[in-house]
Amino acid sequence: MSRTTVMQRTPGGWRFDNTYSQLPAALFEKTPPVPVSAPAMAVFNHALAVDLGLDVEVLGSHNGALVFAGNSLPGGADPLAQAYAGHQFGHFTMLGDGRAVLLGEHVDPVGRRWDVQLKGAGRTRYSRRGDGRAALGPMLREYIISEAMHGLGIPTTRSLAVVSTGEVVEREALLPGAVLTRIASSHLRVGTFEYAAALSDRPVLEALLGYTIRRHFPECLEAPSPARALIEAVCRSQASLLARWFSVGFVHGVMNTDNMALSGETIDYGPCAFMDVYDPGTVFSSIDRQGRYAFSNQPVIAHWNLARFAEALVPVMGFPEERSVEEAKEALAIYPGAFKRAWLEAMGAKIGLFAPAELDIPLIEELLEWMLETRADYTNTFRRLNPEGDGEGSPGWRMRWMERLLRQTQSLGESRGLMKRSNPAVIPRNHKVEEALEAAVVGGDFAAVHKLVAALAKPYEDTARDPDLLEPVAPSDMPYRTFCGT
Ligand code: AMP
Ligand code: MG
């Protein structure tokens, strides 16, 4: 964003700018976080704070807990709750940040702009019947899984801190309350555009379009139709993201259009989880009874969500209506091809292929089928694959795989290197996450959370130190169920 204001560095190392609040007022409500009774730091992401150029001495102390709880506003912050809409399980609803407050955009020392958002910061205009609060368990869970995604190299929002509030929240039981500080390239969503389109106020939609393009895809400004170029850019980044999810067995769980970020980052860690045994039908969320957001359906749903995005942009495509609809459809049509290419690249790398081609698809799919039949662990199967070993894949498959590897110009050693960089040893296994959360929330002991987060920061390294992190759950403990945890 090019702005002339000189941003002051304020205590804590913040350098806040507030460009979102310059957008038309229909898109947000200025509202401060609601203070909590007894803030205490639960986890603080020291490495991320350093990366953002923040003052770790100040923010790692009780002073930081006050900021991350919303009790003390950092200098330069101009808090607001964003409006957005969403297709939730296929049904359209007007929504907004019902329990999150954007403090502003922190501009780090190398000029990157980051939204700083407090999740669980109290009621806003968009809270509907909700209490505006969050529970400690789910906020720690978002912290662990989002940081795991980052460690895996997959675009994601980050977690800077979790503070406990000293208050209880009423859910299925009385639970300890918490606030999560979420860091994101932005919180612009497919649903933000759906909201603007539903207002039927063209200048609002135009302002949002210009803002999104300048913030994330400035190259689109040069295109004959910036709106069409934006649809294509978002299709490409989502295609790449969905392929990366597939490559690590990630199930988001609630891919509503309000939970799809235009930046291409994974956002909103509710009932998400990683698969153990490979099964394309894997569903974890207790509320996803139809399997709408099942593992292998995610790329299809992403396309469906992108269609809602393209529809919202029709009024600002810059052509007469009929042509605008055509252009939006054409832009959207690049998604399946983009996903297929991204999938092939990500999955090809997992079996050691440097330039996977269409002809390699059956080779990849055959290994997946073998996993399904033998109920093999997704992560461990790929991690153990070794062209010179045996065990993973049928003997016939192994022969075809070896022949294919030998046709590459790269050596087998180089293929093994690629595989090691593409196949994590450690993922946040559900039973390990639950164990760590239980110890923290019930026992007040954060050692297991810290140990897990440390291992997940380097998932491609061999972790002989923590062999228990590599084991899938005992079959008797399946199937795993996650709850929205709001
Ligand atoms: P989610 O399922 O987390 O994407 O949330 C969907 C919508 O519900 C968003 O607009 C949230 O801000 C809102 N929401 C979720 N939990 C609460 C809560 N406890 N209080 C108020 N709003 C909430
Ligand atoms: Mg959400």
User: End-to-end distance, in Å?
Assistant: 33 Å
Beta-strand portion reads 5-15%
Could you state the order of secondary-structure elements as H and E?
EEEHHHEEEEEHEEHHHEEHHHHHHHHH
Radius of gyration, Cα only, in angstroms? 23 Å
Count up the helices: 16
Q: State the helicity in percent bands.
A: 25-40%
List the uncertain runs: none
* Count of beta strands: 12
Shape: globular
Helix-strand category: alpha+beta
Topology (SSEs and partners):
Layout (H helix, E strand, L loop, with lengths): L15 E2 L10 E3 L9 E5 L1 H6 L4 H4 L2 H8 L10 E9 L2 E6 L3 E8 L5 E7 L14 E2 H17 L5 E13 L3 E11 L5 H9 L3 H15 L9 H23 L1 E2 L21 E2 L23 H16 L7 H12 L2 H16 L10 H14 L3 H7 L10 H12 L5 H11 L7 H12 L5 H10 L30
Antiparallel strand pairs: 1-6, 2-4, 3-9, 4-5, 6-7, 7-10, 8-10, 9-10, 11-12
Bound molecules: adenosine monophosphate and magnesium ion (MG).
Overview of the structural elements:
The protein is α+β, with helices and mostly antiparallel strands and 486 residues long. Among the domains are: 20-190, no CATH class; 343-376 and 386-422, no CATH class. The chain has helices at residues 46-51, 56-59, 62-69, 136-152, 190-198, 202-216, 226-248, 298-313, 321-332, 335-350, 361-374, 378-384, 395-406, 412-422, 430-441, 447-456, and strands at 16-17, 28-30, 40-44, 80-88, 91-96, 100-107, 113-119, 134-135, 158-170, 174-184, 250-251, 273-274. The strands form 3 sheets. Strands 1, 3, 6, 7, 8, 9 and 10 form a 7-stranded antiparallel β-sheet that branches. It has a 3-stranded antiparallel β-sheet with strand order 2-4-5. The chain has a two-stranded antiparallel sheet with strand order 11-12. A hairpin with a 3-residue loop joins β9 (158-170) and β10 (174-184). The longest helix is centred in the middle third of the chain and has 23 residues, at 226-248. It is globular, with a radius of gyration of 23 Å. The protein starts with 15 loop residues before the first strand and ends in a 30-residue tail after the last helix. Adenosine monophosphate binds next to β5.
